[in-house]
Amino acid sequence: MKLKSLNRYQAFASHLAISLVLFFIILACITQLWYPGILFDSSYGMKAVALIIGIDLILGPMLTFIVFNPKKPSLPFDLTVIAIVQMLALIYGTWTIHSSRPLAIAHVNKSFITLYANAENAEEVKQKVKELNTNQLYYVFNDNKPSQNINVNQFDSYSTHAAKVPSIESPYTLESHSLESQPDETLLIQIDPLASSNRYLVINKQDGEIISFTSNNNH
């Protein structure tokens, strides 16, 4: 297809079609590999998707729409520059998303925390997640060796300890009636309370199973 045979709208549509293919490939990586399951909601997965949309589906195609004129002698050069800018931005954005992705959520003491890939202990956490075959962890304190730092070796599968979580008294736990949308048989436990005060994991009152993520702007 020759550039001179296209009009501005056709060029935009062609660029958008190519960008959509790239977008769905990266979207699959985000939702299936980098922010799987509940980590997508609890770790701002939608912000990662929005970043890729802004770069891939808006930046490139819109620049093509703006500059495209089949009569311009410099059109091939202009489109090459746009493609390079878009790819560099896309590579950087994808790298940022991947390098700061969540590795796991863990119940530590009285709340949940997120363990990220850019943390100092990330490699150890990756190994533990692989070893336990789950990204939902529970921190088992060792009273014989108290420490202010997290020892990755003391993480265990959350499901093994989930039943005791509903009975833990904590300032980070709310009854389900605090949010009208939550059923009575659930509890809300804050996730990353040092970073925000209105983000919760919804757990089952009976067995402690993690059900979903929710937020409440009133808290």
In short:
The chain is of the alpha+beta class. It has helices at 8-34, 39-42, 45-67, 75-99, 122-132, 158-161; strands at 102-108, 111-116, 136-139, 155-157, 173-175, 186-190, 199-204, 210-215. It has a four-stranded mixed β-sheet. It has a four-stranded antiparallel β-sheet with strand order 5-6-7-8, with no helix packed on it.
Describe the structure.
This protein is an alpha+beta fold. The chain has 2 domains: 3-99, no CATH class; 102-215, no CATH class. The protein has 6 helices and 8 strands. It has helices at residues 8-34, 39-42, 45-67, 75-99, 122-132, 158-161; strands at residues 102-108, 111-116, 136-139, 155-157, 173-175, 186-190, 199-204, 210-215. It has a 4-stranded mixed beta sheet. The mean pLDDT is 91.
**What is the overall pLDDT average?**
91
* Strand element count: 8
Structural class: alpha+beta
Overall helicity: 40-55%
Biggest sheet statistics: 4 strands, mixed
List the strand order in the largest sheet: 2-1-3-4
Radius of gyration (CA) equals: 23 Å
Oligomer: single chain
Order of helices and strands: HHHHEEHEEHEEEE
Low-pLDDT segments: none
Relative strand content? 15-25%
How many helices?
6
Number of domains in the coordinates? Answer: 2
- Give the termini separation: 57 Å
Shape: elongated
Write the layout of secondary structure elements.
Elements: H1 8-34, H2 39-42, H3 45-67, H4 75-99, E1 102-108, E2 111-116, H5 122-132, E3 136-139, E4 155-157, H6 158-161, E5 173-175, E6 186-190, E7 199-204, E8 210-215
Parallel strand pairs: 1-3
Antiparallel strand pairs: 1-2, 3-4, 5-6, 6-7, 7-8
Helix pairs in contact: 1-3, 3-4
